[in-house]
UniProtKB/TrEMBL annotation:
<keyword id="KW-0496">Mitochondrion</keyword>
<dbReference type="InterPro" id="IPR029045">
    <property type="entry name" value="ClpP/crotonase-like_dom_sf"/>
</dbReference>
<dbReference type="InterPro" id="IPR014748">
    <property type="entry name" value="Enoyl-CoA_hydra_C"/>
</dbReference>
<comment type="function">
    <text>May play a role in fatty acid biosynthesis and insulin sensitivity.</text>
</comment>
<dbReference type="InterPro" id="IPR052377">
    <property type="entry name" value="Mitochondrial_ECH-domain"/>
</dbReference>
<keyword id="KW-0809">Transit peptide</keyword>
<comment type="similarity">
    <text>Belongs to the enoyl-CoA hydratase/isomerase family.</text>
</comment>
<keyword id="KW-0443">Lipid metabolism</keyword>
<dbReference type="GO" id="GO:0006631">
    <property type="term" value="P:fatty acid metabolic process"/>
</dbReference>
<keyword id="KW-0276">Fatty acid metabolism</keyword>
<dbReference type="Pfam" id="PF00378">
    <property type="entry name" value="ECH_1"/>
</dbReference>
<dbReference type="GO" id="GO:0005739">
    <property type="term" value="C:mitochondrion"/>
</dbReference>
<dbReference type="InterPro" id="IPR001753">
    <property type="entry name" value="Enoyl-CoA_hydra/iso"/>
</dbReference>
<protein>
    <recommendedName>
        <fullName>Enoyl-CoA hydratase domain-containing protein 3, mitochondrial</fullName>
    </recommendedName>
</protein>
Length: 293
């Protein structure tokens, strides 16, 4: 599966997956926000902003990410969300220092529960969510990429679930991986901890596109701006329907989506789009869930 031997990646992967305790031992938490939220022209950028700890998904980081995802999410001005990161590691997964025996079971449960909440929230949001990956994405960081609707990666990126190597099998990342990758590819990642290169991740469907590092921003914004050209209400209906039908058998999926197509036609934007096409003009979207009167 992975063309590069684990021995060549042992040090960077171990560093990325660790809690970065050595880097931050004995020091107070940085004053900077763990995530940074910026929004312009319909695109919200959420930046994981703790490179000193390799953007580990600590409880605080997860809470900050959840807050930024949910902020004013129903606004018509929000059309797409992009998740990126500062530093050479996109996300190293959970902060292992928080998972030591010094913390009790209740705290550990809280960490994993909010992580699951954030991952499922991404697919429940009414706007597309894009992962912009430049660097390592390991364990729950790989889970984050797999949970996004679209993932654009630089050619230097790598993806791994190396928990098995430290005695903590990546069972929760496996939920997202198992729904994004062929089963045998996902299980090889989970059983061996071996990384996927960006091109291998593309080949197996973990990411949508791979581009040179210097083109990553341009390509991500190209996709984002294209999304912004469509009706938010129509996209919200389509996204929710897509994930819903994926869990159904074929006959049930077609029955459900047939009704959704009919419902889509009752939306103001559903009719506006058809009328604009017939009249050969650009549609004027309302971005609302209102029905055509």
């Amino acid at each position: 599966m992975a063309s590069v031997g684990l021995w060549r990646l042992r040090r960077p992967l171990a560093a990325a997956f660790s809690s970065a305790a050595a880097a931050g031992a004995g020091r107070p938490s940085p004053p900077e926000k763990l995530t940074v939220r910026r929004q312009a022209a319909g695109v919200r950028n959420i930046i994981l902003n703790n490179p000193r700890k390799r953007n580990a998904l600590s409880l605080s980081m997860l809470q900050s990410l959840r807050e930024d995802l949910l902020h004013d999410v129903k606004s018509k001005d929000l059309r797409v969300i992009v998740i990126s990161a500062e530093g050479p590691v996109f996300c190293s997964g959970h902060d292992l220092k928080e998972l030591s025996s010094e913390d009790d079971v209740k705290y550990h449960s809280q960490v994993f529960e909010i992580c699951a909440e954030v991952m499922t929230l991404i697919q429940k949001l009414p706007v597309p969510v894009i992962a912009k990956v430049n660097g390592l994405a390991t364990a729950a960081g790989c889970q984050l990429v797999a949970s996004c609707d679209i993932a654009v990666a630089s050619d230097k990126s790598q993806f791994a679930t190396p928990g098995v190597n430290i005695g903590l099998f990546c069972s929760t990342p496996a939920v997202a991986l198992g729904r994004s990758l062929p089963r045998k590819v996902a299980l090889e990642m989970l059983f061996t901890g071996e990384p996927l290169s960006a091109q291998e991740a593309l080949m197996h469907g973990l990411v949508s596109k791979v581009v040179p590092e210097d083109k990553l921003e341009e390509e991500t914004m190209k996709i984002s701006h294209k999304i912004c050209e469509s009706s938010k209400s129509v996209l919200a209906l389509g996204k929710a329907t897509f994930y819903r039908q994926m869990t159904q058998d074929l006959d049930t999926a077609y029955k459900m989506t047939t009704q959704v197509m009919v419902d889509n036609l009752t939306l103001r934007d559903g009719q506006e789009g058809i009328e604009a096409f017939i009249q050969k003009r650009k549609p004027v979207w309302s971005h609302s869930q209102d029905e055509k009167k």
